[in-house]
Amino acid sequence: MEKEKTKIIFFGTSDFAKDILRAIASEKYQILAVFTQPDKKVGRKQEIKIGPVKEFSDKQKIPVFQPKKLGEEIIRKVKELNPELIIVAAYGRIIPKEILEVPACKSINVHPSMLPEFRGPSPIQNAVLAGKKETGISIMMMDEKMDHGDILAQTKIEIDPNESAEDLMKKTAPLSAKLLLETIPGWMEGKIKPKRQDDSKATYCQLIEREDGHIFWNEEAIEIYNKFRAFYPWPGIFSIWEKDRIIIRIKLVKIRVQKKDPEEKYEIGEVFKLNKVDIGVKTAKGVIIIDEIQLEGKNPAKIKEFLNGYSNFIGSKLK
Fold it and tell me: What kind of fold does domain 210-313 have according to CATH?
């Protein structure tokens, strides 16, 4: 297989996808075009933010398409480009079967989980949320169902108990790129036999939204800590503090976990001094230690600095 003559179309949007695209480009494959999500307005000023894949593609002078929908016009465009292979990584939208079946070598997807576990849009976050000790990478054929296609290659990755989803994503991306580059030649030369997924063992990701970061203190401390790891940096975790009959949303910017319960008895959600230094919150089992906190509309503050202005936080009950 001559890489320079192998025609590829890439679909992807995120930083993870950018790392995959960079790896493909470094191997001198002929990238005909890149399809990525439209630029979005972000922040209070609603400034336009260019996605990582588009930014990289522009620098590499790769043609970029950002369709709002993958309709007939885009299907015709893909057919005109006539790729030998389509590669997808974290594109963020279901791709129609009419597009997936255009290339002679079909379409393949890079999915950061050990399929059929964690099918769906947020496998890294969900692996951390579930407290998994390992996850993986799957290179798979694509069909009209979500993450359902036959497996071409897989490898496992260990998850550190203090690793955030962001940390794990950064670790997973280069390993995913490496596995993909090892897989492409064998697949295009017909040397890899696809393996069917066992649908009976399939699990699915929850779609993560901002309100999912709300902490419920009747959960165990380790579950709350896993939620903190999974939702870092977005959407983050928060709780509700009722101060002088005013409901305040507080973001827990940095926390630690103590699995054992304190010697003294406290109510679920109660804030207390764990020792001379640490401030804890009682959970169903164990304690969450708060190191850094942020009131809505304010800057993050170390817990010691925060208590200088809000000493009545000690003894309050979070919800």
Answer: Methionyl-tRNA Fmet Formyltransferase; Chain A, domain 2 (3.10.25)
Q: Which two tokens stand for residue 175?
A: 């390993």
Q: Are 112 and 15 in contact (CB under 8 A)?
A: no
- Token representation of residue 234: 């977005």
**Residue 177 φ then ψ, to 5°:** -60, -40
Instruction: Tell me what the mean pLDDT of segment 226-243 comes to.
Output: 95
Is there a contact between 165 and 230 (Cβ–Cβ < 8 Å)? yes
Query: What is the pairing mode between strands 85-89 and 7-12?
Result: parallel
Contact residues for 201 (Cβ-Cβ < 8 A; gap 6+): 116, 117
| 32 pLDDT more than 70 | yes
Q: What is the DSSP string of 194-206?
A: -B---GGG--BPP
Q: Specify the CATH number of the domain 3-201.
A: 3.40.50.170
Q: H-helix or E-strand containing 204?
A: none
Alpha-carbon distance of 147 to 150, in angstroms, equals 9
* 255 three-class SS: strand
- For the chain, which residues make up each domain, given as ranges? 3-201, 210-313
Higher-confidence residue: 2 or 224?
Answer: 224
Residue type, 122: S
**How much is the pLDDT for 1?**
64
